[in-house]
Design goal:
homodimer, alpha/beta, Rossmann fold, 5-stranded parallel β-sheet
Chain lengths: ~500, ~500
C-alpha cells in the first residue's frame, strides 16, 4: 500500500512548476463551478504520519484555491460543550454548506487510529470504529457531502532526515512538534495503523489518496491532484450503503386512538399535579445533571402535541429546556444533510430538548408529499436509528411519542378550532389538505413505527382521542424515564466511537 | 417609583381568574400575529429583587403563551468562549429571529446593577454603563428588536415573609436560593440599584414595568399584562437615538489610486517574504494568544481584496484564521439586526477573522442600491463606531483597509479577467453594473471614510492601482499591528461594560 510513497519520489523542479500552473487553473475552475452549483460540500480529511508536512500541504492548498471558500476545521481536545454531546457532534456542528470546502484536522478517524497504534490492538473494537466511520461517510455521500481522505506518507529514513533538517534551522525548528519526534520511534505502528484504517474504510464514494511526502514539490502536486480529482467528480449517484447498525427493532406498538378508560376532571388534575411533581423532582437529581433528555412528538394535526408539551414544560424550570417546533427546512438548513439541523439542537447535560415534529419528517411528510425520493426516505430508517443510537450511547435518553387520533376526533377538533377565539390561529389550509391524505400518512407512520421502534429508542403510542389520558400517559412516561436515569445503562450494544482527547492527529 | 408595588397589592381570586382568561386569549392572539408578521423580535428582560418570584412568573408566561416560540435565554457565569469576546457577544449570539420572543435572565443590566448596589457606587461608571445600555437598546429597537423590562418588586416585609414561608415547607424550600436570603439583608441597596437602573434607562422604545410580586396572582396578572402591552404595540417608528459614543474621528485619509512608487518583481518578492515572516512570527507571540485580530477589506470590484487576503493567509497557520466573504444577507440573517451576522463571527483569542467586505455594506451597497432608507444608513455610522469600539475595548484589534483603484485600472482588470482562464469566474454582470454607479459608490465611500475613521479603528487607504505596492502596504500594516499588540492599550476612552461573572441576576 505504501510501497510507492516509501520510495520517496521526487518530482523534477521544472516539471513541478509546469504541473502546478495547470493544477492551479483547474482547481480554481472547479472550485468556482462547485460554488455556483452548490450541490455538494467537499470534506478533505487530513491524516498520515506526524511530521510528514500535512500543515504545509494544506496551507498551500489555501493559496492555490480561493481561500474565502475553504474552511479549515481543526479539532483538538474536546471542550466542555463537545464533551456533553455524542462524539460526532463537533463534526456535524461545523459542516460547511454545499458549494464549499472543509479541510478536517483531527477527524473522526482519531479513535480508530489510536486503537490501531496500540501494541495489541483490539480487532473487534477497530472493526466497530470502522463500521461507524463507514456508515457516517456513506450517509454524508448520500446527502451531498463528498469525503476524500489524504494519507501523508514517507519512508522512515526520509522522516528522520526531514525532522533533523527542520530542527537544525532555528527558523524552521518550531515546525517540529512532540508528535513528530514520537513518530520516529513509533513509525512502524503508525504505518500499520494507516494500513488498517485505509483498508477498512476505503469506499468508492470516500476514497483514500496516499500522498508521498518526503519532497515538498511532490507532496504539493499530489495533494492538489487528489483534491482536483475529487472536485472533478459529479455528485455520487450510487452509494454502496454500508452495513447498517445492528438494531434490535421492537414490534411496532399497537395503535389505538381511544384510550381504554376515560377520566374525570378532578382525578385528572390530581394526577397531572402528581406527575408534574415527579418530573420536577427528577430534574433536580444529581444523575440527570450528567445526562440529558430528548423528547420527540409526532402525530396527525390536532393530535394534541402542543398541549402535551405545555403540560410537561409547566413542571420545568424555564432554563432547563428548549422547544423546537419543526417545519420545512429553510434554505440555510437545506444546504446541509437533513439531520444537521437536529444535531445542532442536541441538549447539553441537565437539559431537555423537546421536538414538536422532528427528523421523522423525512419518512412522514417528505414521503407523502414526495419531497424525497423513495430511495432517500427508505435509507432514512437506518440513518435515524443510527442517529438515535449515538444519542443513547452518549447517555441522552430519547423518548418518542406517537399521538394517535381518530379521523372523527380530528374533524371535531378542527371545527372547534374554527370557532374558538384562541384556537383559530392554529388551523390552516394545510391542515385540511393534509386530512385528505389521511391514509397515506397512516401508511407512512405505520412503516415508521415498524422500522424505528428500537430497543434503545422505542416509540410510545399514545391513544390521543382523550386529551387528558394522553397527557397523563406522556407525563408518566417522562417521569419514569427521568427517574430511571440513575440506573440507566446505554441500551445499545454497539459502543459509541471513542471520544478523542488527544491533540490533532 | 416603588411605592405602589411596596403596598404589596392583592388581586381578588375571582377577579384574577377573570383577568387571566382574557389575558391568555389576547396573549396568544398577539403572539401568533407577531409570528405571522415576523417583523419584530420581543425581548423581555427579567430583573428585580431576588426572591420576588421571577422564575415562577416566567414559567407561567410559558404556559399562557405558546412556549414553542418563547425562548428562555439565561446567562450566568461567563464561559470560556464568552470570556474571549466583548461583553455583549453572548446576547447577540442568542438573539431569537423576528416573530419570536426571548426572555432574558442575567441580562446586560448586570454590571450597572452590581455597581449601583455597592456601598459607594461610582456615579460616572454607572452613567457610562447606562449609556452603553441605552445605545444598545436604541439600536435594537431601530432594527426591529423590541425590548421590555420587568422589575419584580415587593416590600421588605413581604419579602421576608415569602422567603420564610417557602423555607418552612420542604416541598418549596428548594426554591429559595442564597441570593434570595442575601436580598433580605441588602434589601435597601437592591432597591436603590433598581431605582438607579430604571431612572437611567427608561425610554419610550424600551419601557420598564414594575411588577408587584408579593402575591402570586397579582404578580402573574401584572407580568402577563406588561407583556401583552408590549405585544400590542406596532413596530417603533420614532426611536429617540441615545447619546452616541463620544468618538474621536480622525480626518478622512487621503485617497490616491496610484502609489508614489512602483516596484520591481524581485524587490517585491523579497519584501513580501519579509513581511510574511514578521506576521508568522508575531502570530506565535504570547501576547497575541490573549487577543485577536479583525481585518476588514473594502474597495471597488477588482481592487485586489482577494489577492491581498491570500498574501496574508499564506503567512498563517491554516488553523489560525477564518475568511468571511460577505455578500447580501440570506433570509436567516435578515431576520436579525444587520450587525448580528458579524457579531457571530468574532474571533476567539489567538485567531484572525478576515472580512472580505463587511458591515460597511450598510453604508456602501445598501445606500447606493437603496436597499436601506436614508435614516437607516445614516444611523449606521454611530452603530458601527460603537461596535468597533466594543471590539477594541475587548482587546481585539480592528484593521480596516480601503483599496483605492482608479476607474481606468478597474476597466483594465475587468478586461483581463474576461480573457484569463483562471480569472474569468471572478467577473459577473454585477461588476459591470456597479461600474456604472462609480460616482455614487465614490460618494458613499467618502462619507464612510469621514464618519468611521476613528482613533480606535482608523481606515488605511491603500493605493491599489499597483497590486504589489498595495499588498506590501497591507502586509506591513498587519505585521506592525500584530507586533505592537504587546504594548497595545485599548484605544477607546469609554470602558467596556463590565463583564458579569455573578450568578443570574
Amino acid at each position: 500500500m505504501f510501497s510507492h510513497a516509501e520510495t520517496d519520489p521526487v518530482i523534477d523542479k521544472d516539471e513541478a512548476r509546469e504541473l502546478e500552473a495547470d493544477l492551479r487553473i483547474r482547481l480554481l475552475q472547479h472550485q468556482y463551478r462547485r460554488l455556483q452549483q452548490a450541490e455538494q460540500t467537499l470534506l478533505i480529511v487530513v491524516a498520515g504520519i506526524d511530521g510528514a508536512g500535512k500543515g504545509s500541504a494544506i496551507n498551500l492548498l489555501n493559496t492555490w484555491m480561493d481561500p474565502r471558500h475553504v474552511h479549515t476545521l481543526a479539532f483538538g481536545k474536546l471542550n466542555k460543550r463537545e464533551a456533553m454531546r455524542p462524539a460526532m457532534w463537533r463534526y456535524w456542528n461545523s459542516l460547511p454548506p454545499k458549494g464549499q470546502t472543509g479541510i478536517v484536522f483531527g477527524s473522526w478517524y482519531g479513535a480508530l487510529l489510536a486503537e490501531a497504534q496500540r501494541k495489541h490492538p483490539d480487532t473487534e473494537k477497530m472493526a466497530q470504529y470502522a463500521r461507524i466511520i463507514n456508515r457516517f461517510e456513506a450517509m454524508l455521500a448520500a446527502e451531498g457531502v463528498q469525503v476524500v481522505k489524504l494519507w501523508f506518507h514517507l519512508s522512515r529514513e526520509a522522516h528522520k532526515e526531514r525532522t533533523e533538517r527542520l530542527l537544525q534551522n532555528p527558523e524552521t525548528a518550531w515546525r517540529v512538534s512532540r508528535a513528530d519526534l514520537k513518530a520516529q520511534k513509533r513509525f512502524h505502528r503508525l504505518r500499520r495503523a494507516g494500513e488498517i484504517a485505509i483498508t477498512q474504510t476505503l469506499r468508492p464514494h470516500a476514497p483514500w489518496y496516499i500522498i508521498p511526502s518526503a519532497n515538498d514539490d511532490t507532496r504539493a502536486i499530489h495533494t492538489a491532484d487528489a483534491v482536483l480529482q475529487a472536485l472533478e467528480q459529479p455528485p455520487a449517484t450510487r452509494i454502496v450503503a454500508d452495513t447498517p447498525l445492528p438494531v434490535q427493532c421492537l414490534p411496532a406498538p399497537e395503535r389505538r386512538a381511544a384510550p381504554p378508560e376515560r377520566i374525570g376532571k378532578d382525578v385528572y388534575e390530581a394526577q397531572l399535579a402528581h406527575w408534574q411533581g415527579r418530573i420536577a423532582q427528577a430534574m433536580r437529581s444529581r444523575a440527570f445533571s450528567e445526562r440529558s433528555l430528548v423528547l420527540v412528538f409526532e402525530g396527525q394535526d390536532a393530535a394534541g402535541k402542543g398541549g402535551a408539551i405545555r403540560r410537561i414544560t409547566a413542571a420545568l424550570d424555564v432554563r432547563s429546556f428548549d422547544i423546537h417546533p419543526v417545519s420545512a427546512p429553510n434554505a440555510y438548513e437545506r444546504s446541509r444533510p437533513y439531520l444537521w439541523r437536529f444535531w445542532r439542537k442536541l441538549p447539553p447535560h441537565g437539559k431537555i430538548a423537546i421536538f414538536d415534529r422532528s427528523w421523522y419528517g423525512r419518512v412522514l411528510v417528505e414521503r407523502v408529499e414526495r419531497l424525497a425520493t423513495p430511495a432517500t426516505w427508505q435509507r432514512a430508517y437506518d440513518e435515524i436509528n443510527d442517529f438515535e443510537a449515538q444519542l443513547c450511547a452518549n447517555g441522552t435518553q430519547v423518548l418518542k411519542f406517537w399521538l394517535e387520533v381518530s379521523k372523527a376526533e380530528q374533524l371535531r377538533r378542527f371545527k372547534e378550532r374554527e370557532t374558538s377565539p384562541f384556537k383559530s390561529f392554529k388551523l390552516t389550509q394545510d391542515d385540511w389538505r393534509n386530512r385528505t391524505k389521511w391514509n397515506a400518512y397512516r401508511n407512512a407512520s405505520q412503516s415508521m413505527l415498524e422500522r424505528t421502534s428500537t430497543h434503545h429508542a422505542p416509540w410510545h403510542c399514545i391513544p390521543a382521542d382523550d386529551k387528558r389520558m394522553a397527557r397523563l400517559k406522556i407525563l408518566e412516561a417522562v417521569a419514569t424515564a427521568l427517574e430511571s436515569a440513575d440506573g440507566h445503562e446505554p441500551a445499545h450494544q454497539e459502543p459509541p466511537i471513542q471520544k478523542q482527547t488527544s491533540e490533532f492527529s
